[in-house]
UniProtKB/TrEMBL annotation:
Protein name: Lon proteolytic domain-containing protein
Domain Lon proteolytic: start-end pairs: 154-242
Domain of life of the organism encoding this protein: Bacteria
Signal peptide: 1-28
Gene3D superfamilies associated with the record: 3.30.230.10
Record InterPro entries: Lon_proteolytic (IPR008269), Lon_Prtase (IPR027065), Ribosomal_Su5_D2-typ_SF (IPR020568), Ribsml_uS5_D2-typ_fold_subgr (IPR014721)
Keyword Signal (UniProt): yes
Pfam families (UniProt xref): Lon_C
UniProt keyword list: Signal
Phylogenetic lineage: Bacteria, Bacillati, Actinomycetota, Actinomycetes, Kitasatosporales
Originating organism: Streptomyces koelreuteriae
């Protein structure tokens, strides 16, 4: 048996499930991570009391300037990101809302993700060493390089590791520093043949770089547009594609001879 509802009562009853759905949408966890500028580290110096780059089998130079690798800090894999968090992140320049799958492997536990990031860092360090020694024409059997960077995972420090090794062993090739005494920051993966790859999060990394004193930022060429989007004032972008061309750009920047590409 059905009873007839008046229009106001019918609307009120219909509104109940709609309100419940809206409340669920607002507070339900969403498949996003919220990221912000993270720490940077000078690969030519120490990080948490330990030298980042240690070389044996060849004399290492005393260097001036800094080569700062950059990071982003994202909400942990098990953090519940809700709709208000997402909306807040969209309207802030010091945060970015990213699909969780773009930050962390899909479906993995926190422990598995940490292990994955550690493995990526180790592979990146090995590739960076091979790329740098290959560029310098040195044999890995004769020169041993140790890389240590605590509490950082993933492959995006590869380029800066390679540049740090080159600066410590050869500088600019003419007894000068590859940095020219500047604070230079950047990001990018690197392959053993010296090819530089994109990493993501560059708009946040440029903010971290500027915060920590950098005046130059090395960015994978494919990500120039993203880097320009929120570029801090006074930070110069140099697009990079290979280790060799990056070294050439830094030498040209230092000496004033030759062209330095820009985004």
């Amino acid at each position: 048996m059905f009873s007839r509802l008046t229009r106001p009562r019918a609307l009120a009853v219909c509104a109940l499930p709609v309100a419940a759905l809206l409340a669920t949408a607002v507070f339900a966890p969403l498949p996003f991570s919220v990221a912000q500028p993270g720490m940077t580290a000078n690969v030519l110096g120490e990080n948490k009391g330990a030298e980042v780059i240690t070389i044996s089998g060849a004399p290492a130079r005393d260097t001036r300037g800094q080569l700062r690798m950059t990071t982003i800090e994202a909400t942990s894999p098990d953090t519940r990101v809700s709709l208000p968090d997402v909306i807040d992140g969209w309207f802030r320049t010091d945060q970015a809302v990213m699909p969780r799958d773009a930050v962390y492997p899909n479906g993995d536990s926190v422990k598995e993700i940490e292990q994955h990031n550690e493995e990526q860092m180790k592979e990146s360090q090995d590739a960076a060493t091979q790329a740098a020694l290959g560029y310098l024409g040195l044999n890995a059997k004769d020169v041993e390089v140790s890389l240590k960077l605590a509490d950082v995972g993933g492959p995006s420090a590869g380029l800066l590791f390679s540049l740090g090794i080159i600066d410590k062993l050869d500088g600019d090739g003419s007894d000068g520093d590859l940095t020219g005494g500047r604070v230079i920051a950047g990001t990018g993966t690197i392959a053993e043949d010296g090819t530089i790859g994109a990493v993501g999060g560059v708009a946040l990394k440029t903010q971290a770089a500027k915060r920590d004193g950098a005046t130059v930022f090395l960015v994978p060429k494919a990500e120039c547009g993203d880097a320009r989007a929120e570029l801090p004032k006074g930070l110069r972008l140099i697009p990079v594609t290979t280790l060799k061309s990056t070294v050439n750009s830094l030498v040209a920047l230092e000496t004033g001879k030759g062209s330095v590409p820009s985004c």
